[in-house]
């Protein structure tokens, strides 16, 4: 790399010297050309160092934006070319500089605007790809339900997997702790499953934010930059993202929203798994994971019993159902009728 830069410096210095001598024919002109050539080569080297730090997508987007801006500028200047004034040349340079800079800025900041799917969506009258971008966090990948949601088509748009999320998953999968290691490997398996589905548009992006240390912060910054929606089941990330104006899809909230409605008085069969916190209470669970607290069911642990729903409590953490043993309620009714 040093050799190439050295050659670049020599070539521009030589070219500058020759051009200076051709223009002025004096030694001073050659020296001036040499200095200009060296300055240009140094500017190119500095620009190269800056460009190397940018993601390829931003470079392509910036170049495309610059080209688009210059095309628009030339169309505009062509329309006023018939107007000949002393300021025409200056006006042309100003318009080209302005539109070129704006195109470069937009292309570098939002390179996905120049992707073909966006133009297709415009002609079809649908939402753009940018507005449909879904960025997955580590917790939702490990959870696993996201794969089923994607496969049945409930999550539309492009699925983005940031490289820093992959790195965190890999670190969890390499953990010495068995539980963490299994969770990490499960997450990697879920990602592989999503990628293998040809109907799901998945993209891994290298975008990173070195100044931000936490993965949650990086996710929020990426969503703000791409105009996407973060998909998570992390309550804290949910709140932080909402506070910063980022759209959030919470899988736990979705699961709670689609749970079957249970009304007081309904009869259901529950397997009593363990004892409750209160005296004589028994605890069971529905198939969707909803906890059912049954009064006086401690003696029924390890058995399936019929219960009658007495009340339903909805909280931010989920839903709890309180019930009583059907047999007990029937006995009470018999006792009341006898009296």
Secondary structure layout:
Blueprint lengths: L1 H23 L2 H26 L3 H24 L8 H22 L6 H9 L9 E3 L1 H6 L1 H7 L7 E4 H11 L4 H19 L5 E4 L9 H12 L2 E4 L2 H9 L4 E3 H7 L9 E5 L2 E2 L6 E4 L5 E5 L8 E12 L2 E8 H13 L1
Parallel strand pairs: 1-2, 1-4, 2-3, 4-5, 9-11
Antiparallel strand pairs: 6-10, 7-8, 8-9, 10-11
Helix pairs in contact: 1-2, 3-4, 7-9, 8-9
Describe the structure.
- By secondary structure, the chain is of the alpha/beta class.
- The chain folds into four domains: 53 residues; 61 residues, no CATH class; 125 residues, 5'-nuclease (Rossmann fold), CATH 3.40.50; 72 residues, Nucleic acid-binding proteins (OB fold (Dihydrolipoamide Acetyltransferase, E2P), Beta Barrel), CATH 2.40.50.140.
- Helices cover 55% and strands 16% of the residues.
- It has 13 helices and eleven strands.
- Strands 6-10-11-9-8-7 form a six-stranded mixed β-sheet. The chain has a five-stranded parallel β-sheet with strand order 3-2-1-4-5.
- Strand 8 and strand 9 form a beta hairpin.
- Helix 1 runs antiparallel to helix 2 and helix 3 runs antiparallel to helix 4.
- The C terminus is likely disordered.
